[in-house]
From TrEMBL:
Residues 268-357 form the PpiC domain. It is found in: Cell inner membrane. It holds the Pfam family Rotamase_2. This is Periplasmic chaperone PpiD. GO terms for molecular function: peptidyl-prolyl cis-trans isomerase activity. Belongs to the PpiD chaperone family. NCBIfam families: PRK10788.1. The chain crosses the membrane at residues 12-35. One of its GO terms (cellular component) is plasma membrane. Keywords: Cell inner membrane, Cell membrane, Chaperone, Isomerase, Membrane, Rotamase, Transmembrane, Transmembrane helix. It comes from Rouxiella badensis.
Amino acid sequence: MMDNLRAAANHVVLKIILGLIVLSFVLTGVGNYLIGGSSDYAAKVNGQEISRAQLDDAVQNQRSRLQQQLGDQFAALAGSDGYMQQLRQQSLNNLIDVTLLEQYSKKLGVTVSDQQIKDAILATPQFQTNNQFDNAKYLQTIQGMGYTADNFAQLMKQQLVSQQLAQAYGESDFVLPIETKSMSELVLQERDVHTATFNASALAAKQQASDSELQAFYDQNKNMFVAPEEIKVSYIEMDAAAMQAKTQVTDADVSAYYDQHKSEFGQPERRRYSVIVAKDQADAQAIDAQLKAGADFADLAKTKSVDTLSGKKGGDLGWMEPETTLPEFKSANLTSKGQMSGVIKSDSGYFILRLDDIMPEQVKPLAEVHDGIVDKLKQEKALDAYYALQQKVSDAASNDNESLASAEQAAGTKASHTDFFTQQNVPAAINFKPVVQALFDGSLIGHDGTPGSNSDVITVDGDRAFVVRVDAHKAAGVKPFAEVKDQVTQLVKRQKAEDQSRVDAQKLLIALKEGKGDDALKAAGLSFGDVQKVQRTAQPSDFEQNVYALPQPQNGKPSYGISQDDRGNTVIIKLTAVNPGKLTDAEAAQFNQQLQQTSSNNTFDALLANLRHQAKVKFGSAAQNQ
């Protein structure tokens, strides 16, 4: 099978159609997976070697994916030897698991053919456009995930093997109807609750706080009152796009560019070929003889060509430009429509070529490309002026480092000014990473926070650049007590209110459990609200967890508990009913399938754990960072 696919990958048409070339790469890569015999290995799994090269490739792929996911954060992680060794070990563990699964699948006779891998890739919706395999989308997608075609084929093979094993074990797992019913009733359970809320804000308004209490809270929680570093900035912006709008281009400029770059506006000669691919020289000569005797080229291509891709189209390969034409085609020296080559031998085998049509070289008229040339020349002139302005402003800013006055004169514009801002609320006009970094790295701030020097020219995305100057600076530090006294007062009163509400709630809870709740609620000025239906969620709140921690009501008597709402108020919970979840027959069948899938996954995980336990794994020198 592999030999046949590799032979197919050498067919003429697969060399021409880029969308199918990748399949030859994919299928070639699969055959080389987990092969290696060097003594410098990463590990041996039951005698099967994982080479250094395989491990290095796996680590590099993981690095690429993490880099794309984490960006600049990954640079800091990559600088840690411990982290990179951990990454290498994880990659090796994954390779060991894959090897164990492959060994076990072979033992069971579970195999994945190269055709299955090919079909799985072609059928993946993420690689399709209008329900057809799209090579460009395929390459872009897997490269975005950090894979080469070979690597992705290996991953696809691993997934197919795992799926077959999981399915094999999944067929032996089953869930009884009574288990489905019990589990659904529990998971989908709904509880009826009523709540009585202690309003912490209202209680806080009634609290008193002495100066000594406020000062003590401030002294113990100074980290709550830290003022971040603040700066006030002047800046000059240079924008190539804005300069382009003011740039003039004459008709003479356009004509000169057109005359000097006519190759940019032409369509080179194109030729259309058809091909018949034979399996050997004898078949090729026989086909050639039939063609010379008057047989129809397209009919023979459909019935005789071993290249089914072109054969289905009567041998048609479509239009080709000089740079995409194979050397063997050029060497055939076909010059007129309908001319055939005779038998040609190449690395791909034997084939017969026919020239179907010729489209002469064409050059678009100036009128058709005039506006495009204008835009191009404006952009080029604007960029030239933009870079010249950068240099001019840079020289002025460095020669007069006491202000931006000289830089303003060089730029022909006045500097813009900001109010004080922190690194967390940078004004949008200058909120670019290189600019923010220059402003807050301390290099532009003078001694004791005084204004320092002008920055160099800072370039950012979009052909823009800035020169900035820090006009004023406030260092980070703890705000003085007098400045935050009102805030401290609110916090102390709120804390007292929350403490009081928790104490009062505990007293009320005792009274409710003793059957004296009505009087206690009235004394507290509280009452239970309307019923609330509470269900479990994927990420339950503290309130939900407390509701489901309560015991079920017995003999018509509610259960009581204490919690907090999302505003920090203390809440008394009254649980009056527990309603088991209910499913329709269709929902029950789907739920049963989900339970069975979970059971299958657990079984498969147990299988892999057992394989690891029984395996003889020997680590080589390549397992460590070198």
